[in-house]
Amino acid sequence: xxxxxxxxxxxxxxxxxxxxxxxxxxxxxxxxxxxxxxxxxxxxxxxxxxxxxxxxxxxxxxxxxxxxxxxxxxxxxxxxxxxxxxxxxxxxxxxxxxxxxxxxxxxxxxxxxxxxxxxxxxxxxxxxxxxxxxxxxxxxxxxxxxxxxxxxxxxxxxxxxxxx
Length: 164
Description:
Blueprint: E1 2-9, H1 16-19, H2 30-34, H3 45-48, E2 54-57, H4 69-77, E3 81-84, H5 89-98, E4 101-104, H6 106-111, E5 117-121, E6 126-129, E7 134-137, H7 143-150, H8 154-159
């Protein structure tokens, strides 16, 4: 699995209430959720995000509630991959379940800056900062997680008979 995109970067402890504010949880429409993604921390997020962009963050990304709305909003906004120093456990699993690629790589998350262009090869566990020509190693995605993400989530993978 390879991802290439422009980086939009955030700091530590970005919680699910910031990713998608609770006032928008009365909808399950993915486009509507995406239209409010990150608005309480970055009012211009929806104007600057483009399909395939990569989000980079610090420690404890996705902390807070267990709502699936947060990774859905990120994915529906066009973000293809989230790289962070660490993720909240429930957010991590919810992301995989809905087909949002995420990877922990503290070195990359520290060094990569907003606006950089990044390529991630998660089959081989390598993240390249194309802006600075630096390379960072991470754990490759296990095959079953690759299938889940490629199929658009856990439910779709099961429907397709990819997972049992």
